């Protein structure tokens, strides 16, 4: 079952909030910090496949390289991009958290193949969503963080980047900016494929079966690349 938490700053102290989140992580992943798929002991190096975050098959041609685990990336444009990455991670046996996005489309994620039992949803993280995301890194492979238009300065970002790298958890930042992010992904809808009974070529008839995206990926792993795919 999807875990949903509303952190009320007026009722919980900072220490209580952190402990509350840790219990939620344990409920989702079995045991906080040890339930992540593909995790290896700190003394054993990860294989090439284990060090990369699973990506949707439909986006394989859009991304020249998968995101390394522990990366902080800013995503913008189509919301289907972070949702599809949540779907890919949980379908592969990993765990994901979605923070600060109260209107997230979980039905769409399920249609992409997501396993809801492996997703924690914190729609209202309170006054400091960055801190909430940092705590969740203990037990997650992927955290999607909605900033609500905020910008996280480099001085604050560095500590969280170091934690993401240490925990092997990838952070996707949406609806805001993260200074010093190692990757930036921008996806725009460039077309649809319609399926359904009758004459699907007629406008207004049929069902959207697939969305085509145009993506721009920038960062240390990508350089600057553009691609179009479904």
Structure in words:
With 230 residues, the protein is an alpha/beta fold. The chain is 24% helix and 29% strand. It has 5 helices and 11 strands. The strands form 2 sheets. Strands 1-4-3-5-7-2-9-10-11 form a 9-stranded mixed β-sheet, sandwiched between helices. The protein is globular and about 55 Å long. It starts with a strand and ends with a strand. 39% of the residues are buried.
Features:
alpha/beta; 230 residues; 5 helices; nine-stranded mixed beta sheet; two-stranded parallel ribbon
Low-pLDDT regions: 31-35, 37-49
Lateral arrangement of strands in the main beta sheet? 1-4-3-5-7-2-9-10-11
Strand content: 25-35%
Shape category: globular
Distance between the termini: 29 Å
User: For the residues shown, what is the average pLDDT?
Assistant: 76
Helix share, percent? 10-25%
Secondary-structure element string = EHEHEHEHEEHEEEEE
> Total strand count, please?
11
Main pleated-sheet profile: 9 strands, mixed
Which radius of gyration do the C-alpha atoms yield? 18 Å
Q: By helix and strand content, what is the structural category?
A: alpha/beta
Please give the count of helices.
5
Short description:
With 230 residues, this protein is of the alpha/beta class. It is 24% helix and 29% strand.
